[in-house]
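Today's session is about reading a structure prediction critically. Students often jump straight to the picture, but the first step is always the sequence itself: look for stretches that repeat, for charged clusters, for runs of hydrophobic residues. Only then move on to the predicted structure, which in these notes is written as discrete structure tokens rather than atom positions. Here is the chain we will use throughout the hour.
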Amino acid sequence: MENVTTMDNVTTMGSVMTMGSVMTMGSVMTMESVTTMESKTIMETKTTMETKATMETKATMETKTTMETKATMETKTTMETKTTMEIERLGDIHPEDLIRCHYDQVTIKSVPEGVSEYQLVGFLQNCQKLEVLRIGCRAERTLAILNMIISRRQEALQRRTLFPLRILEIMDEGLKLFDRQQPYDDRDHVASTVTFAKDSMAYDMNTHVRLRRTYTNGVNQNVQNIFRQYGWSIETIDAPSGFNDPLAARLHESIRERGSRITTIIINPMQLAIDFFALAVGWNSLHQVIILSPSSIYLEMIFYDLVLMHQWEKAEEVLKQFHKWVNGIRLVSDHTSAWIPRLKKAFPTSKSFPELRTFDMRRYSRSKVERDCVQWIVAMISVPSYYEPYSQLEGFRLTKFEFQSEHWESVIYAIDFEALEWLDFMDTNFSERELELLVNRIVDNKTSPIRLKSIHLDKHIISSSKAHSLCTRLRQKVPQVKINGT
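Below is the predicted structure for this chain, in token form.
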């Protein structure tokens, strides 16, 4: 009996335990399933949101890209719509042929004699989109073209009619750029750029003037009037001749009224009248021009053909008057034994010219020079006492001079290379020996970096293998230097 009861109990208990276990396991499985489903739902929802966000981001990026592409295309289209026309000579195309034309830029390479500048009125009237006009012409025509276009613009603005021109450029025939490094010739050169304000009569202007080598009948009246009317716009004056009292007075009158923007004056001052018993109009005008101009102005004086005593005296007087301002001295003359002793006595060292930056001496015929000349050259290029203010030399040239070897050595060792940018010994007896001295002098320099940019020597000097080796050494020390342009 006890065994049966025990077995039944066990069976019942086992059944109950089994069912309980099953129920418990079933309950656990159901909760896990719910949890799994909820997690899956959350993940799916998150994935859906991320996908949607990604799609939105992508759409935004695509929209942005499309807008940027569209903007780029619109910009490109705008740039491509700029149209230009080039005309060889004014008069080749009749202005009436340009009615309602849509050129933004017109270039006219020359204005021949006999063709009126008033033909340009047709371009201004018929090219309703013309913003830039470039004209090449002789200097004698510049003033008339400037005045005509500026006055037409003012008239149009007064009538409140369309005048889209913004930039006017006038330069040499053939549109040659103004280049002060070119040799002087027998023509005047004027380059001027006018920038017009958009909705007013105001305009800005900059002008560069280079006068011819020599004059027989004086400076052209139209060129003189550029100094009087637009002298305030002149930035460069390069006048190996022709800079006389009337021209200096016209320039002074113009900048006294409207200010000066002159940065460079290179003149032969010997054509300014000197009168010890009356007012020296030209000298006083030049003096006022220098004072009224920016402090950074570069003033170079050229002296030709110092042959007669009155020329030596005048050169000395000019340099005394302007010694505080002169930045460059160019002496072009033979007969050095006659005039150098006088200048040497008046100006014994470079201290006489505290702002001197270039020193240039040239002869017409190659010849040996005397010791006095060498001593004065050495004194002019040597560094003054460090206790006194001075301007360091930036350029030095000797042409058609022949020195003894020891004189070349004195010259080379006197050069201050700290600020020197160019050196020119063309058509002298400067030899390979002097080249070696020069290279050693530069390479052995242990102070500040060398600024030297160019050296000009006769070709035969640098043709040997030794000279090539010396030039290589020089370039290792001064990588930027060019010897004879290479």
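Discussion point for the tutorial: Residues 1-79 have pLDDT under 50 and may be disordered.
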